[in-house]
Design a protein that fits this description.
heterodimer, A: about 290 residues, mainly alpha, MetI-like fold, B: about 375 residues, alpha+beta, Rossmann fold, OB fold (Dihydrolipoamide Acetyltransferase, E2P), 2 domains, 6-stranded mixed β-sheet, 5-stranded mixed barrel, 8 helices
Chain lengths: ~290, ~375
């Protein structure tokens, strides 16, 4: 009897602890998405009249603009992810392996501090640096490298710089975690057995860090693909970024059905890409998540 | 003429606060099992890492196989190391672990797989090449770590306390296996440990290291029976230690008197004169025990001491009894005879004990090198 009460009260505590997470999942994620799904599957047949249909999804595949914008967004996101990985790896390596104690904490803080500033302000900062009358074009003229100030905004490389900058921390953290857990003696043993810098990296460091690398890449890729602010501020209104298309459908054109369909297509296509990435690198999703 | 596989010449390494290795010079003969024995912090790991090439010495040189290793990185030295935690690669199979060094040398896949399988056979792990490292037992991992190094046919194999992580039973068995492997391969082994029993059982020669220097280098027997310094006498094997002042000198024998008033005779090591502070070391098995003076059955006349049993330390063949000397209340350990006689000793029982003065050794204090 007493035992049954104890287990009942334990179950109650469990549910109470889970409640905020469940409410959040259900109320803020599941419910809006269900509504969006229903919205995306409606066709307007007349003023105020709707019927079930796949017209929204057909538009995406038949209208080349939308498909091209999606491919462009995905390609730039992939490049941004790769660049972030290349940049974050040496940073994570330095913090995890080459420094100890206070210095390593300090370096981590240096990576974190830009995130204390709102993303909008940070991106506007980049605009101050890069616009035609901004700091860097002015500096280039002063140094005599260019004759007239160059407009550096509204170019694809600029979008890339902004995206990499915004994503760096989300790559450094999982990489740091997986590199930190690598036993130094494994690296020494690999050297001792005749390895050099490159082979040790390829045969010991990367296989050990691969769950962290994959986790970081997934997070950064998803963040970049869904990024709106950086792309539209640094790339301009005509940057042809997929989230901008969704925004346009919802806000400018009041075509919520089309916007919802694009939203779902983004979710679906990015999931397919992540899944393909996991298959290609031979990783299991659960392993990757447990290491992050 | 003996050839040395490893020769250190005035090798030194200083860290900010202390000297880890202090101008060491020594040679390790080809094909021998050489141990460096010392307490933690004595500099033995630094020494080993300098030989492996992970630490650059501040002074002196290391020669391996007659070639100076000055400026040669670890991956180009004819030396391999068995790490303390073994450092097997968990992301690779056992076979890939053993073949790792061969792959780095550019040996073709089929060739290195065959060589790795042969090496696994030789260390007694046939057919385990496809297993994962975490499927092996502690002893098997040990052998994989050794196989991984020996497959490269190094001039020198360095072992950094590889038995430290094993439990006692397995450690005893691996000791024997290591000695057999070394004999079978004929590779020169340099082994560092803080466990004197490992060093004594395994080695052809042992160097006892303390504060960056070798206190004594010799065979295990030399270290045990004729320690050159008080540190060696205290560190290698069990020993009774009696501190006092020299009260008389009689040829090779000295008599010292402890502060508590116990007078003991021992063989002199180095020069001593009356009044010098000195320390005597007596091995527990050198002393004999008896319930009466007649029981002692002394072949030669020797001083007979009286004491009471403080505690009984039963440990099978290594059993001993801890006594307190009557007058001085000094602790003294005596090994019990293996016959089982005196197995019925009681605590507080009065006993007699004695030891031959020439089997105890006396060092002057402050003259550690005689």
């Amino acid at each position: 009897m007493a035992k049954a009460t104890a287990s009942a009260s334990q179950r109650l505590i469990l549910w109470l602890l889970l409640a905020p997470a469940l409410l959040w999942l259900f109320g803020l994620i599941l419910l809006p998405h269900l509504d969006l799904a229903l919205l995306s599957l409606r066709e307007r047949t007349g003023p105020g009249e709707y019927a079930f249909g796949l017209a929204q999804y057909r538009t995406f595949f038949t209208e080349p603009l939308y498909w091209d914008v999606f491919v462009r967004t995905a390609t730039i996101s992939l490049i941004a992810t790769a660049l972030t990985l290349l940049l974050a790896f040496p940073i994570a390596w330095t913090i995890a392996k080459l420094t100890r104690g206070r210095l390593s904490t300090l370096l981590f803080a240096v990576c974190l501090i830009p995130f204390w500033v709102s993303e909008t302000v940070r991106t506007l900062g980049w605009m101050i640096l890069l616009r035609e009358t901004g700091v860097i074009p002015g500096l280039l003229v002063t140094l005599g490298i260019t004759e007239v100030p160059i407009e550096m905004l509204y170019r694809d490389p600029t979008i890339l710089v902004g995206l990499v900058y915004t994503s760096l921390l989300f790559m450094v953290v999982p990489l740091y975690g997986s590199l930190e857990s690598l036993d130094d003696s494994l690296i020494e043993a690999a050297y001792d057995l005749g390895g050099n810098g490159w082979t040790v990296l390829r045969t010991v460091v990367i296989p050990h860090a691969s769950p962290g690398i994959t986790a970081g890449c997934i997070v950064v890729f998803m963040l970049t693909l869904g990024n709106y602010l950086t792309a539209s501020l640094l790339g301009g209104k005509n940057s042809l970024w997929f989230t901008e298309q969704i925004y346009t459908q919802f806000i400018t054109r009041f075509n919520w059905e089309q916007g919802a369909a694009f939203g779902f297509l983004l979710l679906l296509l990015s999931s397919v890409m992540v899944w393909t990435g996991l298959r290609l690198s031979g990783q299991r999703f659960s392993d990757v998540m447990s290491r992050t | 003429m003996t050839t040395f596989d490893l020769e250190a010449k005035a090798l030194s390494k200083r860290f900010a606060t202390h000297t880890a290795v202090d101008a060491l010079s020594f040679g390790v003969e080809r094909g021998s099992f050489f141990s460096i024995l010392g307490p933690s912090g004595c500099g033995k790991t630094t020494l080993l890492r300098m030989v492996a090439g992970f630490i650059e010495p501040d002074g002196g040189d290391v020669e391996i196989g007659g070639r100076s290793m000055c400026g040669v990185p670890p991956n180009r030295r004819p030396v391999n190391m068995v790490f303390q935690q073994l450092a097997l690669f968990p992301m690779m199979s056992v076979g890939e672990n053993v073949a790792y060094g061969l792959a780095r040398r550019g040996v073709a896949r089929a060739d290195r797989e065959r060589k790795a399988a042969e090496m696994l056979d030789r260390v007694g792990l046939p057919g385990l090449a496809a297993k994962r490292v975490d499927q092996l037992s502690g002893g098997q991992r040990q052998r994989v770590a050794i196989a991984r190094s020996l497959v490269l046919k190094p001039t020198l194999l360095l072992l950094d306390e590889p038995l430290g992580a094993l439990d006692l039973k397995l450690r005893e068995r691996m000791k024997i296996e290591l000695k057999q492997l070394q004999a079978a391969f004929g590779t020169t082994f340099v082994y560092i440990t803080h466990d004197q029993s490992e060093a004594l059982v395994l080695s052809d020669r042992v160097a006892v290291m303390n504060s960056g220097r070798f206190e004594q280098v010799g065979t295990p027997q030399e270290l045990y029976y004729s320690p050159a310094t008080p540190f060696v006498a205290g560190f290698v094997g069990a020993n009774n230690r009696i501190d006092g002042q020299v009260s008389a000198i009689d040829g090779d024998l000295v008599e010292i008197r402890s502060a508590a008033g116990w007078t003991v005779k021992a063989r002199r090591h180095g020069t001593l004169k009356p009044g010098d502070a000195a320390t005597i070391f007596v091995r527990p098995e050198v002393a004999v025990l008896g319930r009466s003076t007649a029981d002692l059955a002394l072949a030669e006349p020797a001083a007979v001491h009286q004491g009471t049993v403080e505690s009984l330390l039963f440990d099978g063949a290594n059993s001993a009894v801890l006594l307190r000397e009557q007058a001085s209340r000094c602790e003294f350990r005596v090994a019990l005879p293996q016959t089982g006689r005196y197995a019925d000793l009681k605590v507080n029982e009065p006993v007699f004990f004695s030891f031959a003065a020439d089997r105890a050794v006396c060092f002057g204090v402050g003259s550690s090198h005689g």
